[in-house]
Amino acid sequence: MKAAIVTVGDEILIGQIVDTNSAFIAKSLDRIGIEVYEMLSISDDRQHILDTMASLQDKADVVIITGGLGPTKDDVTKKTFCDYFDDELVRNLELEKHVVELIEKAMKRTASQMNKDQALVPSRATILHNAVGTAPGMWMEKGNTVFMSLPGVPYEMKHIVEHEIIPKLVEKYERPYILHKTIMTYGQGESLVAERIENWEDSLPEFIRLAYLPSPGRVRLRLSARGTNEAVLKNTIESETEKLKGLIGDIIVGYDEGETMEVMLGRLLTKKNMTLAAAESCTGGQIAQMLTSVPGSSAYFKGGVVTYATQSKIDVLGVDKTLIGENSVVSAAVAEAMALRAKAIFGADFAVATTGNAGPLKGDADAEVGTVFVAYATPNGVFSERLDLGQPREKVIDRAANKALEKIYQEILKN
Amino acid sequence: MKAAIVTVGDEILIGQIVDTNSAFIAKSLDRIGIEVYEMLSISDDRQHILDTMASLQDKADVVIITGGLGPTKDDVTKKTFCDYFDDELVRNLELEKHVVELIEKAMKRTASQMNKDQALVPSRATILHNAVGTAPGMWMEKGNTVFMSLPGVPYEMKHIVEHEIIPKLVEKYERPYILHKTIMTYGQGESLVAERIENWEDSLPEFIRLAYLPSPGRVRLRLSARGTNEAVLKNTIESETEKLKGLIGDIIVGYDEGETMEVMLGRLLTKKNMTLAAAESCTGGQIAQMLTSVPGSSAYFKGGVVTYATQSKIDVLGVDKTLIGENSVVSAAVAEAMALRAKAIFGADFAVATTGNAGPLKGDADAEVGTVFVAYATPNGVFSERLDLGQPREKVIDRAANKALEKIYQEILKN
Q1: How far, CA to CA in Å, does A335 sit from each of A31, A323, A373, B49?
Q2: Is residue A411 within 8 Å of A378, Cβ to Cβ?
Q3: Do residues B9 and B152 touch, judged by C-beta distance below 8 A?
């Protein structure tokens, strides 16, 4: 069982839009044991779509195409399906009714001819109902391959995948089991981790694959198992994870797919019934944004301030003006004062604070671009560390925010 | 001049990671007039990489491959280059020196053998220097095609594209001009816009292409011109834009490629010498984070508070406790009070505030999941609007933050 995902749209090829649809579809297919072996992004061009369909014919069992559907003139997928399957467009009255009703309900106007023409579909296509939009999905088969076409608007695409495609695929195909487990490590680089687990990795059973997913400050290790016996896969993944724990237990901070530092922090704070606040300068709200991306975070994240300008550190946070004058705004002393003030005004058990220069230009202070002080206020006091993160700006912000969460996690663990 | 972009990595094919590298590379190539005709994501598998390279041979002039480089065992691109170009790995001493120095400086430890082996490269490869990481980029040619391999870590990839690849491509190839102009419209759907400009669209010159990029609440229209005479392209795009303005001037809110709302806001505030602050509840720092993602934003973004818990709205922002009691924390009155308080404590000309329930669980208030109040404080007063954004959580946060920036932009325009 192999699948390919094709995204149609010039806006992707010129880099105007990042394709997030393919990742969603891939995850959905992976969950039901269908392996995606290739993703493609191609232009809104009939011949290019035709060539791509032909190249995937019988090479993939399932081909899911998004984009190139919709009411305007650059929409070509539907016509290309007619070419490829030697079919013609016919008006589907049930579909037209859906389009007319949706336009009237959502837009509060009557449907135009262009809207109504979205009910024109290849005569032999099985319609994939789009309850949340006017462009229908289509399912057509040729040889051993099912080709599907979906609109590119993410929430319409998601709706059709979840409610139409996945149930249909589950019914049609027998699939193997695919299991993943991700082990998150912090504080050591990819190569160091790799050396520590080299022998273990070499002795992994053939049906298990290991991947390294490094990002600044951490490495995730992903184990993937594929086979027909779910219990065997599960047990083997568990026993291999146990062995790994024996080898690098000191740097393992969590397990499971999608387990980010902010999720782990949330779980830890909830368990300890403790709270956190943040005062951010150069990270500009990134820490607050990461923390609040977790559902239920209002229970333990008291809040944050983004005091970007020096004056707001004084006015809003209440940092001592003299302290800033004596130490510079980018300093350990100011970071620590910010953390203590955030802890106090939010009434939190812990607080993190950042002050630094993310670049590319120098800000209020004379600090080198890339210099960040991160401070941690805990029930036992306050301390800070200096990070030299270089450039570019986004890396500085990302690393400082990640570092802050990581370190405060360790502090909370101690308390 | 055609290019293809290939991303190597199983983490993309299972949907664990969204590929943002390809969009960055595409945008960089587009800017120098190189058309990307296809993007592919494939597995970490030697044969798959080989097949893909062979399929692009002489079909693309430039093939840029990211991922599959790095110190661990699942890195295969380098070895595959040796296979494809019938070459062998040799140790590059200059590279090894760079790796050793970088590890010592950044990690404060000595380089391991695995680190040092990153200096093993195909003997005939031209090295693309990676100043910010240990995995080198490579450039190798066969027939009419240049193949390049880059590490998948985004900031390393970006550095090499900007500092190595683009200058080399500009020197090597004569390229046509590609010009884009994006016209941003708000408030009417794709089909309505399409009907209003149908005649104009039909009479566009052949070297200009129009694309519709719809997203919730807005449609961007992208004009792309391609040719050898830059002046002709520029003039035609300008005159066609003028015609468009005559047709749908009422819904056009801005122009230009890559222009996000936060960038436009920054430019507008700078021009007017005015400032902005934010008080966020359900958007949890997203607004601050968007604003501060723009370099130089410290000049006009005074700062923000993330008052997630009801108590912090009182303690930190100074919202009246009785007001919250009488209106509920998710209400127009509280949103407006938050905006006014943020404007006051940060001493800003404008402020936005959000309070709502992003879900999936109900928070401090009884408001329906998906209900958000956004308030706008301006030099002339304060007002708010209620949004019903449904679910999921991320959509609620995203839409509320975008809506806030969009609306305050319009308010600043008026002042």
Answers
A1: 44, 11, 6, 48
A2: yes
A3: yes
- Residues B225, B232: Cα–Cα separation, whole Å: 10
What is the identity of the amino acid at B186? Y
CA A206 – CA A200 distance, rounded (Å): 13
Residue A142: the pLDDT is 97
Residue A414's pLDDT is: 81
Which of B12, B211, B308 lies closest to A10 in CB terms? B211
Q: Which domain holds residue A230?
A: 177-255
**How near does any CA of chain A get to the CA of B124, in Å?**
26
The CATH number covering residue B50 comes to 3.40.980.10
Q: In what order do the strands lie in the sheet with A218-227?
A: A208-215, A218-227, A177-186, A252-255
Calpha distance A334→A172 (Å, rounded): 63
The values of phi and psi at residue B238, to 5°, are -65, -45
Q: Model confidence over B98-142: pLDDT tens digits?
A: 999 988 887 778 888 888 989 999 999 999 999 988 899 999 999
Residues A200 and A231 in one domain: yes
Candidates A246, A309, A333, A326; CA nearest to B296 is A309
Q: In angstroms, what CA-CA distances link A100 with A105, A114, A117, A151, B370?
A: 9, 11, 10, 18, 27
Residue A178: phi and psi, rounded to 5, are -125, 125
Pairing of strands A126-128, A218-227: unpaired
Both structure tokens of A231: 């219990």
CB atoms under 10 Å from CB of B304, counted, come to 35
Q: Examine the domain organization and report whether A239 and A364 are in the same domain.
A: no
Which of the listed residues B255, B272, B296 is the one where a domain comes to its end? B255
Asked if B189 and B298 sit in the same domain, the reply is: no
> Which runs of consecutive H residues, i.e. helices, occur in B68-226?
77-85, 93-107, 113-116, 154-160, 166-172, 190-196, 198-202
Distance CA A190, CA A32 (A): 30
B296/A361 Cβ within 8 A? yes
The edge-to-edge listing of strands for the beta sheet with A301-307 is: A381-388, A371-378, A350-356, A276-280, A301-307, B301-307, B276-280, B350-356, B371-378, B381-388
Q: Cβ contacts (< 8 Å) between A26 and chain B: which residues?
A: 12-15
B409 and B336 belong to one structural domain: yes
Q: Are residues A38 and A152 in the same domain?
A: yes
Phi, psi of A295 (to 5 degrees): -55, 135
Contact list in A for residue B17 (CB cut-off 8 A) is 23, 213
DSSP class of residue B62? E
Residues A93, A48 contacting (CB under 8 angstroms): no
Which amino acid, one-letter code, is at B150? L
Compute the radius of gyration of chain A from its Cα atoms: 27
Same structural domain for residues A206 and A167?
no
Residue of B205, B29, B52 lying closest to A40 (CA atoms): B52
- Check CB contact under 8 Å for A213 and B296: no
A67 vs B314: CA distance, rounded Å: 47
Using alpha carbons, list the distances in angstroms from residue B133 to B96, B99, B128, B153, B274: 12, 8, 12, 9, 40
- The model's pLDDT over B356-386, given as tens digits with 9 standing for 90+, comes to 988 776 655 677 888 999 999 999 999 999 9
What interface predicted TM-score (ipTM) does this complex get? 0.71
- Which is nearest to B260 in space by CA: B214, B229, B291, B303? B291
- Give the integer Cα–Cα distance in Å for A347 and B311: 9
- Tens digit of each residue's pLDDT (9 = 90 or more) over B195-225: 899 999 999 998 998 888 877 667 889 898 9
Q: Give contacts of B302 with chain A, Cβ < 8 Å.
A: 308-309, 311-312
Looking at residue B225, which CATH number applies to its domain? Answer: 3.30.70.2860
CA distances from A257 to A30, A181, A319, A405, B199 (A): 13, 6, 40, 19, 51
